[in-house]
Amino acid sequence: MESLLVTTVEEDEDDDEIQPNLMDDESSDEDVDDEHHASLLSSITSLADQKHKKTHQRTVASADVSEYGFSKLYEKESQVNLSELVSSLNSSTSAGKLKKNIKTIEQEKVADVPLVKPQQERLTRSIAYQAKTEEISKWQPLVQKNRKAEQLTFPLQQPNLSLKTSDEMTKRFQARTPLEREIAMLLHGSDYVEKQTKMLTPAEERALKAMSLEEAKERRAELNKYRALMTYSEAKFRRQKKIKSKRFHKILRKEKLKKEEKELDVLQKTDPESYLEKIEYADRARVEERMSLKHRGGSKFARKKMMYARYDPLARQAVQDMIEKNKELTKKHYESSDEDEDGDVSMDDDAEFRMLSAALDAKGDNPWMKAPTKSSDFVRPKKITQVKKNTEASDSEEEEVLTFHPDNMNTDKNLLELEAQRQKKLKLKNKTQNVEVFDMSNIDSSGKEQQEFDEDKVDGDENDELEKKLSKSLKEEELVTPGKKGRKKKKKNHKSGEEKTTDVSEDKKDVEDLFNILENVEKRHAKNKKTKKETKLKANSKSSVESNKEENCELEVNNDEELSHSMTRKRTMEEYESNWAEEEDKTPAKVKKQENSEESSQAPNIKMVSIDPKKLFTIGPEVIKSTDGAEIVTNEDGDNMLDVEEEQRMTIAQAFADDDVIEEFKLEKREIVDQDKPKDIDLVLPGWGEWGGADIEPSKKKKKRFTIRQKNRVKRKDSKMANVILHEKKDDAVAQHQVKQLPRQFLNTKQFEQSISQPIGNTWNPEKAFHRMIQPKVVTQLGSIIKPMDKEEMFKKQKLNKKAGADFNKNVPKKNQDKNKSRKDIKNIKKKVINRKRK
Amino acid sequence: MKIKCLSRNPDDFLRETKRDIHKVPRNYDPKLHPFEAPREYVRALNAAKLERVFAKPFLGSLDGHRDSVSVIRKHPTSLSLLLSGAYDGEVRVWNITKRNCVKSVQAHDGLVNGVCGHPNGEYIFSVGADKQIKQWNITVDGDLQDQPKSTILGRSVFQDIDHHGKDNFFATCGVGVNIWDEERTEPIRYFTWGVDSIHHVKFNPVETNILGAAASDRSILLYDMRGSTPLRKVILKLRSNAISWNPMEAFIFTVANEDYNCYTFDMRKLSIPLNVHRDHVAAVMDVDYSPTGKEFVTAGYDHCLRIFKLDQGHSREVYHTKRMHRVHTVCWSLDDKYIMSGSEEMNIRLWKARAWEKLGTLKSRESTALQYNDKLKTKFGNHPQVRRILKHRHVSKMIFHNTREIRKIREAAKKREQNRMENSKIGTVQYTSERESHVIGEKE
What we know:
The structure holds 2 protein chains of 2 kinds.
Chain A: H1 2-10, H2 15-27, H3 34-56, H4 82-85, H5 87-91, H6 96-107, H7 117-136, H8 140-148, E1 152-153, H9 166-172, H10 178-189, H11 202-210, H12 213-242, H13 246-270, H14 272-291, H15 294-298, H16 300-308, H17 313-330, H18 333-342, H19 347-361, H20 367-370, H21 382-403, H22 412-432, H23 434-443, H24 447-460, H25 464-480, H26 490-503, H27 508-541, H28 545-600, H29 613-638, H30 644-655, H31 661-676, E2 681-682, H32 700-706, E3 707-708, H33 732-735, H34 749-757, H35 767-773, E4 778-779, H36 791-794, H37 796-809, H38 811-838
Parallel strand pairs in A: 1-4
Antiparallel strand pairs in A: 2-3
Chain B: H1 10-13, H2 36-54, E1 58-63, E2 69-74, E3 81-86, E4 90-95, E5 100-106, E6 112-117, E7 123-128, E8 132-137, E9 150-153, E10 160-163, E11 169-174, E12 176-181, E13 187-191, E14 198-203, E15 210-215, E16 219-224, E17 230-236, E18 240-245, E19 252-257, E20 261-266, E21 275-278, E22 284-289, E23 295-300, E24 305-309, E25 315-319, E26 327-332, E27 338-343, E28 347-352, H3 364-379, H4 384-391, H5 397-422, H6 434-437, E29 439-443
Helix pairs in contact in B: 2-3, 2-4
């Protein structure tokens, strides 16, 4: 082996050649020769010198520079396998540990040979560079944004100088003092405090949960109902408030009082203490009123009003109001209620009644003079009484005027007033005449009728006959419209009548009759009212009841006449209706007739045959057109001989038949030539050196002398070209200022021209637009350091967003990771299985 | 009878005081203004002329150095302070507003290769040919202590130094790039890529861990401070002298090259520059971005400064004086208003960033008028007359002739290329764009 070593050291390059020889030598080494041995020894002795020499010798690097032949390791034939080495182990039973180790070694995968260093470095560099480019690419959107920005103001990160909003302040607030803490506890701990994120407080939510849907619906419906009722009542009160009638309001007030009294009665029974209190209060008010002269002409205001009362109706009214007030206040409430209970007619009521009746009768004596005679005994000034009289008279007169208009009967004023009276009197009657009341309830027709009825009664049962008639008529009415309440007025009745007509269309005549009756009744009612008024008038004039009666009769007659008139009118209306109906019936017939007329062209009776002249005219051309079309069609179909081209030529020739293009061009050219020709300059001054005037022309001689003649220029370039116009006027001065190439940022010339033609100066633009347009692209401030973009600042927001996103997506990547893991596991297992199989 | 008559409120048409501006009622109907465009054109012409009238960029020079200025750097927190280093090893601090030298120290033996300030503005670093890194305390007024706060002795010459934008790290270059922690005297990281001598290094101001460096093997290198290896290398045809990162666009940087051009690169695609900026007629020595990131200024070996817009191939401005020699270094002030240049003839010069701009406060009407004029200039900038006026610059004879010569050379080369293409088999001679032609290759 040593010789081997020597030879390899000696001859490096031809190692391969020598080695097999050596191997042969080795094989023949068994018979050791002395010679050989000697030579070996000599060679060893000479080794030291040679070695010294060889160390200085440079050798070329090669894969198989090895004394032990390790280079052969890579050659397959010489490779020694582990299995070969340890094959003996299989037979032996000992050395189990070693066996195990070998097994594990066999199973383990051998790592790849590491790359050469430069390659390795290149890889790491490229990987690092990739990572860095990716990292730096996140600036791209920001950079793009800044490049495209209309305006950039540097430094980019401006300090935030804005004031903090209250919201921000509250966020920063911390409760420190005990009081603050307590309040905070209340604010944040309570269920009744609203939170920003939720619509409802916890308490509200609980309440909502507690209530079922049906209940809620019910409750809502109820609430709606109440709301509706409230609106109705509101509307009612508003309407009532608008009513100008004083009387109505007076009555209302009275009613109110009555109600209060009733309530008092109830109170007396239920709650005597409060009742006493109320009584006391009323008493006190009464006493005070009696003490003072406030409402009795004692005050300065009252005295003044009394003075003006003669001339001013408003003042008059004021005085009256005052007196009313006085009366009200000085009335003894509890006594009357007591008497009411007893069932006797109370004094106050009686007085009131009298007063009202007087007011209605307007018998000259003032009601407010009469009424308080019992309660108060002060003497009123005469002036006012007179005034009152006058007012009453005027009122009545007005009413008179009103009554003669049948429409006015419907006015609320009268109605309400009368209704109020009716109610009053009903009470009276309740006490006096029960039978009558029964009748009333039976009749129960329009309020007016009842009023009249009552009124008549009150007046003293004088119009018995009239009443009977009325009742009769009413009954008739009831027969006609049994379900209807009689409160409806004339118009309403009309309506009902109409409805009837629609319902019962078969027997028109009967219905019409009924209508007549109804209308009669209505009219009578109206007349009755009139009569009532009339009676009032009569009362004023203090005429007898009989005369009244007579008058009534007379009026009745009149009424009848009037009614008949109205009936005729009505009938005409109905006639119209019926006419319409008839027309409707007739129209189909007419149509038929028209149809017939087309055939027969007779029927002179029919006026409605509509022959539109226009139609007649339009039909003609259509027909002609159609014939034309047919002709054309035949042409197309039949004449295939005609060339398409020929046709086209013809059409073009037709189209340009009128305009001579060539001639036009010639003209154009001539014009241009003329324009470009230099013209003679006429410098003649008429009147210069000779006579001048309107009709005097300067002499030819002078003209000739003072006109500068232009010399003939160089011939035009296009003078010999008939079909060409060459413009010789090219303005070089302008060209100097014109842009020759389209600038880069524009797509086409049009765009560029537009950009130029759009001015930016404030001469042509409003100030704001101007300022917007001249904004500089980059704004910097003198003396402020512009720092480079700060990475943290710029990506602060993005980071926050990402964080939120990450929190949201946290589960997803985990799952993926798990999946990957499991995949890897599976792969490993598979590999193992494969390895085993190979084994 | 009611008589209708005109009644006007004097308030509508009279001014209250003499200084009020007359309220001019106007009808903006375009039909009434048929000559809008021509009138604006005339205004634009006038604006262009006025711009040239007011274009006086040179503000003053700071003299005091006794040798050529090798480097000038901005003070990171103060607008009025300027740091400079010279070939005689002197470091000076200047007050720009007062135009005086606040302090000068003999910092190094041999030239000062680099100066930079700490972002908090409390101390500065300088490297010199004497293999030393020196840290100096600096006051708010710019006063330096006579002795450095600390000194690090390196194994080789440091060619340049730059400070990390935020943290207490700085980088030096020379043989490879070293990253230093301020606390330690040994570099925390050492980057090499083969055998290279790097003469310029610059931190990215936005992505503060990335560095760019220019090496003398004509390559530009990118590093990540946190990594163990450089990121990438791109080799140009000639050596790059300086590199500057855009402070508003993190991945954009520009290099000043020996071949008279500047190249703007996107860090993510180094195989081809985004833009080739050319106008210099000699090597470009230094480049610095405006803090707005829209423009940059270059220092040329051809005795002039040029201002380029980021997206334009030609300079918008050239600054030169009769006495200014080769400009070694340049920087753009942090408020975007001034430019400082240090040149061979020992002077530091102060320029306006926009030559025609009026400095100081402006009345609102004045500023409106100026803005309007600016807008007009851009609007009518393509019209030949306006363009001619705006483009016209008076340059030195040398630049003028050299420009012409270079143009001729370029045209000839182009022609040659075209001829070659025309007279050779189709496909054998490929057309290479101007941008492609300057890059030799990108190394991973």
